[in-house]
Design brief:
This protein has helices spanning 6-10, 14-23, 60-75, 79-93, and strands spanning 27-32, 35-42, 45-52. With 95 residues, the protein is α+β, with helices and mostly antiparallel strands.
Length: 95
């Protein structure tokens, strides 16, 4: 199931996504022009995604939607579960 609540997606920062990726076995390969490239290996498949590091990019929400789609496929987890983890981690990290 896809979640496209754009207001909610705008509230997710690049740092929150980066924390999620680090916690779930994704590896940052390179940062170029405020975009980081991440790789995830699962058995015989390799997944990649581009994370914009600036929330002010015009297509930031679209990239977050794309990231959630990739995470769902790569990790075989629902987008709801992924977003819930991001929200919980944000509450733990924030004062």
């Amino acid at each position: 199931m896809n979640i496209y609540n754009y207001e909610k997606l705008e509230c997710i920062s690049p740092a929150q996504i980066e924390n999620y990726l680090n916690e779930h076995g994704w590896r940052k390969k390179i940062v170029v022009e405020e975009v980081s490239v991440w790789i995830y290996k699962r058995q015989d498949r390799i997944f990649g995604l581009f994370l914009p590091l600036n929330i002010n990019f015009v297509d930031y929400r679209n990239r977050v939607v794309e990231i959630l789609d990739i995470l769902q496929k790569a990790e075989k987890r629902s987008q709801e579960e992924i977003l819930k983890f991001i929200e919980i981690q944000s509450n733990i990290v924030s004062p």
